[in-house]
Design a protein that fits this description.
Layout: E1 2-3, E2 9-10, H1 18-21, H2 34-37, H3 42-48, E3 55-58, H4 65-76, E4 79-84, H5 90-105, E5 110-115, H6 122-126, H7 129-133, E6 138-143, H8 147-150, H9 153-156, E7 160-163, H10 169-183, E8 187-189, H11 191-200, H12 205-218, E9 220-221, E10 227-229, H13 231-237, H14 250-264, H15 268-280, H16 285-300, H17 306-321, H18 325-339, H19 345-360, H20 375-379, H21 420-444
Parallel strand pairs: 3-6, 3-7, 4-5, 5-6, 8-10
Antiparallel strand pairs: 1-2, 9-10
């Protein structure tokens, strides 16, 4: 394999995908990831100085992770092996280790690159541990998932984690320009068309190069023998708007978190943006509807009880009518919740009450609060001394105790001074003053 004048691999295989034909072979040919590969950056030192240590690449798609691993091996003079957890199992792991041992016997170190390492189960990941520990292999793994959750703690403790970022549009434009110069010298692309092509790849260099290759095939040849990609070609490519979402992965939870926090922060515009991002990425609208209902209780609660009604109504519309009416109703609910008065008093009260329940055990119901459906239970005293609130002044049994006898009264719900809760707070304050007056009267008597 030789290098061309741009520092890119020239595989001599015109049938190989464009992304393979223009893979960078050195840091000079690598675009993006300046935080790791810029001058003096940590991963740049590893590559330039030929240092070998095991590490994990936490990556989005299409950022040349395999190329980086290959560079590490090449600069260190090590042999390079690559396996994918999608296609491999313990058998392939053993074969790779055997080859590494054979190389070590000849004084040759081995870099073992494991793509999609999170797809290996615990026992498969554990299979690497002794060989990383004794230096048989330098382990380089790659995962699109959060390694804290998807990679065994034992393996994670033996590697350094480098987080790569999605490529930005200017990075992709530069990558496309290099590919045009080396692979399609007779293809004309206006700057605005190139920018649109880069933007549609959504940070994925492989997708950008794939679209360029398709566009070259579709472009018409002009009288001068040159091709040109125009707006019509872009539309004919017909790329759907597949943003980074990976249902159930990090992007999924990051985006629902962003939606929830935007609603909590009373920003209807950002909330609408994240809602549409998730829908655009293919998220199930009913999942979003369920989360919106939670937002209504967790972050708004009794400050505006209508929020819960609107959230439930949006869920019902989505179930009954589907798209696009359902998505519109979800947008209405998200905007309403964003603009509503906020209170987490209900959410906080539930958490505190749950902690009390767990700590206090199975305390008996006070006998005056017990049900008395039979003569025997009435004779046992069930319900004796119970005060019927509707018969009391203001419909409130001032001074009554509703907690277990051995538990002092506790305050879990503390309404805010926002929205309807301001009135609830005022009323509860009045009722607690009635309790205080009643208890003082009992003490005096």
């Amino acid at each position: 394999m030789s290098l061309n004048q741009h520092g890119l691999f020239d595989e001599g295989q015109s049938s190989a995908p464009l992304a393979s034909r223009v893979r960078p072979s050195s840091l000079e040919g690598f675009i993006g990831q300046e935080h790791l590969l810029g001058e003096g950056a940590p991963l740049a030192k590893v590559i330039l100085e030929g240092m070998l240590h095991s590490f994990l690449l936490w990556v989005p798609t299409g950022v040349c992770k395999t190329t980086l691993a290959q560079m590490v091996a090449d600069t260190a003079g090590a042999q390079f092996q690559s396996i994918s957890a999608v296609l491999s199992g313990v058998k392939e792991i053993r074969q790779a280790i055997d080859l590494a041992k054979a190389g070590l016997a000849q004084g040759l170190r081995t870099v073992l690159f494991v793509d999609e390492v999170h797809r290996f189960n615990k026992s498969q990941q554990d299979a690497f541990l002794p060989h990383v520990e004794n230096g048989t292999i330098t382990f380089i793994g790659a995962t699109t998932e959060n390694p804290s959750f998807e990679v065994n703690a034992a393996l994670l403790s033996r590697v350094r984690v480098y987080r790569l970022r999605a490529l930005e549009t200017p990075h992709l434009i530069e990558i496309l320009k290099r590919a045009l110069a080396t692979e399609f010298p007779n293809l004309r692309v206006a700057d605005d068309i190139l920018a649109a092509l880069a933007a549609s790849a959504d940070g994925d260099a492989r997708r950008a190069l794939g679209q360029l290759e398709i566009a070259n095939d579709l472009a018409a040849t002009g009288p001068d023998g040159r091709k040109e990609i125009d707006q019509g070609v872009l539309e004919e490519i017909g790329q759907s708007s597949l943003r980074r979402f990976d249902k159930g992965g990090d992007a999924f939870y990051d985006q629902i978190s962003a939606l929830h926090k935007s609603v909590r922060g009373s920003d209807p515009d950002a909330s609408l943006y994240w809602l549409l991002r998730m829908l655009d990425g293919g998220c199930d609208p009913l999942y979003i509807a369920r989360r919106v209902v939670r937002m209504a209780s967790e972050d708004i609660g009794n400050a505006d009880p209508r929020a819960l009604e609107i959230a439930l109504a949006a869920w019902q519309v989505q179930e009954r009518l589907g798209s696009p009416e359902g998505e519109l109703s979800l947008a209405q609910a998200v905007i309403y919740l964003s603009c509503a008065a906020k209170s987490n008093a209900v959410y906080t009260a539930v958490k505190e009450a749950q902690q009390t329940v767990e700590a206090s055990g199975s305390l008996d119901v006070p006998i005056h609060l017990r049900n008395a459906p039979t003569q025997l239970l009435r004779e046992e005293g069930h319900g004796k001394g119970y005060r019927y609130a509707h018969d009391e002044p203001e419909g409130y049994a001032a001074g009554e105790h509703y907690f277990p006898d051995s538990m002092p009264a506790k305050t879990f719900y503390r309404p805010t001074d926002r929205g309807l809760e301001a009135r609830i707070r005022e009323k509860l304050g009045h009722l607690r003053q009635l309790d205080l007056n009643a208890r003082n009267k009992d003490d005096q008597s």
